[in-house]
Amino acid sequence: MIHPSELVLNPDGSIYHLKLQPEQIGRKIIVAGDPGRIKSISAHFDRIDHIVENREFVTHTGIYKNQKVSAIATGIGTDNIDIVLNELDALVNIDLEKREIKNEQTELEIVRIGTCGSIQEDVPADEVVVSTHAFGLDGLLNFYAFEMNAEEQKIHSEIIQQTNWNKKMNVPYLVAGSSNLIQRIGKNYHHGITVTAPGFYAPQGRELRLKLRVPDVNEKLRAFKYKDFRIVNYEMETSALYGLSSLLGHQACTVCAVVANRYANSFSKDYKPVINQLIKEVLDNLV
Ligand code: R1P
Ligand code: URA
């Protein structure tokens, strides 16, 4: 039995932060940082059956082309992904009444539709990137019994070596997304390694009034090359999404509209049309 302090339920039996009951989610789930994006996703559903909101965690579940699909806002950051992934997994893989792990495990397909900053000249604003891997600067996965596989270890050590990574900026990890979902969802987009940062400013090499520990961090990341692998963009959730999905037995893939280009120092004039097109394409390739 999992104790009430560990598996926290609300008085109505829903899971603590997401406030969801097991029947209120589909097996196919789109996540986004911005709660405002959830309406734009569910606007495509044939029918919306559940709207549940708690804090930044907004969920719309409905039917799209005869399949049950959920759109869930995670809010910003990998700490929120820790909550969302553990609670989604509990909803399908733990019997909440008995507080016991079920014998049969259910696999979720999770696609993150986000926004990101590109560091490459040839990946401009208003184009889309699918994350083959995430280089996590956030440290979340270091708290779990997670080990990189041989390929992840090799790419990781090449990045650390080629960028002469400064040890004071956390211990990074590298983790791959679901190759199956990346093929299904990401075939028409730029592919590359995504840096998941624990902040929007210094952790992504942005300087307003405060000085950076490593001022040329973006040049170093941009120059990294190993076989066909290169680093394309920054965002703030994918490393935790990929790492926890892989540990829990779910499939995950991130696609992001580029809003900032850090090479050209430019920002999209209006990224909503790209996001709306991306939502439609993801829904059609997911179901
Ligand atoms: C920062 O502006 C936020 O935008 C990106 C980052 O990952 C971070 O969450 O994603 P979303 O547009 O999904 O929120
Ligand atoms: N989201 C990020 O995390 N970084 C950017 O530059 C743009 C969107």
Protein architecture, described:
By secondary structure, the protein is α/β, with parallel strands linked by helices. The chain has a single domain (22-286), classed as Rossmann fold (3-Layer(aba) Sandwich), CATH 3.40.50.1580. 27% of the residues lie in helices and 28% in strands. It has helices at 37-42, 78-93, 150-163, 179-186, 217-223, 238-248, 272-286, and strands at residues 28-32, 47-54, 57-64, 67-73, 94-95, 100-101, 109-118, 128-136, 173-176, 190-196, 231-235, 251-261, 266-267. A five-stranded mixed β-barrel has the order 7-11-10-8-12, surrounded by four helices. The chain has a two-stranded antiparallel sheet with strand order 5-6. Strand 5 (94-95) and strand 6 (100-101) form a beta hairpin. Helix 2 runs parallel beside helix 6. The longest helix is centred in the first third of the chain and has 16 residues, at 78-93. The two termini are 35 Å apart. The mean pLDDT is 98. Uracil binds at residues 115-117, 200, 204, 234-236, 259-260.
Structural category is alpha/beta
Uncertain runs with pLDDT below 50, 5 residues or more? Answer: none
Number of domains: 1
* Assigned CATH superfamily: Nucleoside phosphorylase domain
Q: CATH class, anyone? A: Alpha Beta
Q: Report mean pLDDT, rounded to a whole number.
A: 98
- Estimated share of beta-strand residues: 25-35%
Strand segment tally = 13
Which hetero compounds are present in the coordinates? 1-O-phosphono-alpha-D-ribofuranose, uracil
The shape, in one word, is globular
